[in-house]
Specification:
The chain has one domain: L,D-transpeptidase catalytic domain-like (Beta Barrel), CATH 2.40.440.10. It has 4 helices and 8 strands. The longest helix is centred in the N-terminal third of the chain and has 13 residues. Strand 2 and strand 3 form a beta hairpin. An 8-stranded mixed beta sheet has the order 3-2-1-8-4-5-6-7. Helices cover 23% and strands 26% of the residues. It is of the alpha+beta class.
């Protein structure tokens, strides 16, 4: 009986942890971390070391370097949390990023600035119509943006409390 239970557990785990990354499978596996590579303009949904899904992103209009102060239009760099979902966003849907962390606040204070805040992973502005061939440029005030269809997908795959690592 015990061997049968272990075998069933292994079979149950094997399916979702296979090498495929199709949409159906991504929805059935828990996203336990989000990783952003600013230079590559890429956001990745991860389960352990396994890539589940990847998206092309737009960043703040001044994308090079870490956010230092309010109004610098830079996207933060560091370790944060996607801490709450926002159904009433000005940008279709959004998920709040826990910027600033303690190190961000200390750095801004040391330099005599306010660190800023209101940093999100979000879709396009409400009412904006993007053509299929229109490239996504860096246009936000420091947030991370994807298309509306992509934020709808991410919104359902990522739970509150999921870590997000934003790398240069």
């Amino acid at each position: 009986m015990r061997v049968a239970g272990i075998l069933l557990l292994c079979i149950a785990l094997r399916g979702p942890l296979s090498a495929r990354t199709d949409d159906h499978e991504a929805a059935s596996v828990t996203v336990d971390k989000v990783v952003v590579h600013k230079r590559e303009r890429k956001l990745m949904l991860m389960n352990g070391h396994r890539l589940l899904k990847s998206y092309r992103i737009s960043l703040g209009a001044n994308p090079v370097g870490a956010k230092i102060r309010q109004g610098d239009r830079k996207t933060p760099e560091g370790s944060y949390t996607l801490d709450w979902h926002n159904d009433h966003s000005q940008y279709h849907r959004s998920i709040h990023i826990s910027y600033p962390n303690a190190a961000d606040r200390a750095r801004a204070h040391r330099l005599g600035f306010l660190p800023g805040g209101d940093t999100y992973l979000h879709g396009l502005p409400n009412g904006y119509r993007q053509s299929a061939n229109e490239p996504l440029n860096d246009w936000t005030d420091g947030c991370i943006a994807v298309t509306n269809a992509e934020i709808d997908e991410i919104y359902h795959l990522v739970a509150d409390g999921t870590p997000i690592e934003i790398k240069p």
